[in-house]
Structures are given as structure tokens and as C-alpha cells.
From TrEMBL:
Pfam families: PP-binding. Residues 1-76 form the Carrier domain. PROSITE patterns: CARRIER (PS50075). This is Acyl carrier protein. Transmembrane segments: none annotated.
């Protein structure tokens, strides 16, 4: 599964920017995502990757796409 591509698409969609503007080493805060956007992406992650109880706080703990991808890979 290509977690990075999926996350880039989700972040770009929620932030209303192009996928080319999404830097995988920049903090999620940079994209000005509100809590509803983070919860929405968390819910979609559960469905897309067959995960249970993806806590939105993961976006603070693993605060970049690259860091979150490492976490996702560890869950499979």
C-alpha cells in the first residue's frame, strides 16, 4: 500500500492545495488543517487501511507525512 501517496492526496484535498504543494517533511500544522479535517482523515485511514481506532492525536505525535507513514507501516 502506498501510504505516502494516499496521505498526500488527503492532505491536498483537505487543505485545498495541489498535491505538488504537499511537502512530506513539513508539519501537518503547516497545512492549516482544522480538527474536523484531522478527524476525517483519521476515519478514512481506518477504512482505507483496515485499522481500528485511529486516534487523531497521531497527527500530533507523528507530525509529518513521512513520520506517519512509518507508524502506518508498523501497523501492517
Amino acid at each position: 500500500m502506498n501510504y505516502k501517496h494516499w496521505l498526500i492526496a488527503q492532505i491536498a484535498s483537505e487543505a485545498s492545495i495541489s498535491e505538488k504543494e504537499v511537502d512530506c517533511d513539513v508539519s501537518f500544522e503547516h497545512f492549516n488543517l482544522d480538527s474536523l479535517a484531522i478527524v476525517s482523515i483519521s476515519f478514512e485511514m481506518e477504512s482505507e487501511f483496515q485499522l481500528e481506532n485511529v486516534d487523531p492525536s497521531l497527527f500530533s505525535e507523528y507530525n509529518t507525512i513521512n513520520k506517519l507513514c512509518v507508524w502506518l507501516e508498523s501497523q501492517q
